Amino acid sequence: MSEREVEAFFDIGTQYYVAARYAAFAGLAPVCANLFHHAVEMYMKGYLSSQRGLAELKKLGHRLPDIWAHFKASAADAELDRFDPLISELDKFESIRYPDRVLTEGMQLSVSMGKPHSGQGGLESTRPEPFCQITVEDMDHLITTIFRKAVINTRYFTARLNSDATTYLYRANQALPT
Question: For position 1, what pLDDT does the model report?
Answer without folding.
Answer: 56
